[in-house]
Write a structure and sequence with these properties.
Elements (H helix, E strand, L loop, with lengths): L11 H17 L9 H10 L4 H17 L4 H6 L3 E9 L2 H14 L3 E6 L4 E5 L3 H9 L13 E10 L2 E9 L1 H29 L4 H6 L1 H37 L7 H5 L2 H21 L8
Antiparallel strand pairs: 1-5, 2-3, 3-4, 4-5
Length: 291
């Protein structure tokens, strides 16, 4: 039968539809019921010639995407309560976890909150030195992740030399503050406008017109605050993606001595690196306009 098929080219879009339909037909011939276990799915993938690594990656990405898909008006206006990022990176689990730990400590000013068998939870590092580090932006870093309630790291081995990394930042506390602040500010402005309108009704037309200013501001506050919160979520998302970028390109080198060093020693190292970077930038010749 294969010899009788016409020799025609299949574009990428058509190829994806054909593979998806073939997988549906193959699954339809099997008695899978309403659900199946991961091992059954891996066996099905092996039967149709799909590499187990890609199936595991798809499963973990599906799991992360489902958790991030929060519904509701608050999520639509102010963003989700968790921000996610995930990717497959090269390296064994121990090496990847050490690299992430080094970056969380030095690059994001975080400390371990909980260390479990399948995940590690990080939170903002406490103390005077940590606050100074974030306040002065040591190393030219914004330390966005330190504003999250916590950051969860899950590293899952796929096969020899590859791991799936899932990062999630809990921004529920920031979102709750934004929702409460916008509601309170909006209510206060609307009430102020209503009081002025009531006092000025039938007495002073200019004052009645002025009363519309706090009303308009009260209606605009939720829009402004929601936009600011979504922007913060975007910064968190970018910070998580940048960690994965650094892992993917091997830019984070685990330094166990830094993880074991005292906060004072780490802070001194950060200041030393910042001064060195400033000196190097000062030595560079100034760029000419138009060049």
């Amino acid at each position: 039968m294969a010899d009788n098929l016409p020799s025609r080219r299949i574009d990428r879009e058509a190829l994806e539809r054909i593979i998806q339909r073939a997988a549906e037909l193959q699954a339809g011939e099997m008695d899978t019921g309403e659900s199946m276990t991961e091992s059954e799915l891996l066996k099905l993938g092996a039967d149709v010639g799909i590499d187990g690594r890609f199936l595991r990656q798809a499963m973990y990405e599906q799991s992360a995407g489902g958790a991030a898909g929060e519904k509701g008006l608050i999520a639509r206006w102010f963003g989700p309560h968790h921000v996610f990022a995930s990717r497959v990176v090269a390296g064994d689990k121990a090496h990847v976890e050490d690299a992430i730990a080094q970056w969380m400590t030095d690059g994001e000013a975080l400390a371990v909150k909980r260390r479990m068998s399948d995940r590690t939870v990080w939170e903002q590092e406490k103390g005077f030195l940590a606050n100074m580090k974030r306040g002065f932006g040591v190393g030219g870093r914004p330390y966005h992740l330190a504003r999250a309630l916590d950051v969860t790291v899950v590293v899952t081995p796929l096969e020899d030399g590859f791991c799936h990394v899932e990062l999630s930042a809990d921004v529920s506390q920031l979102r709750t503050g934004a929702v409460g602040g916008s509601a309170g500010g909006s209510a206060a402005l609307l009430l102020t406008g209503a009081v002025i309108e009531a006092l000025a009704f039938g007495i002073s037309l200019p004052l009645m017109v002025i009363a519309f200013a706090p009303v308009a501001a009260g209606l605009a506050v939720p829009l402004i605050v929601a936009r600011a919160q979504r922007r913060r979520n975007g910064y968190m998302q970018l910070a998580l993606e940048q960690i994965l970028d650094r892992l993917e390109h091997g830019e984070i080198k685990p330094r166990h001595r830094n993880l074991e060093a005292s906060p004072i020693a780490r802070f001194a190292d950060d200041i030393r690196r910042a001064i060195t970077d400033g000196i190097e930038q000062g030595r560079r010749p100034p760029r000419r306009l138009g060049s």
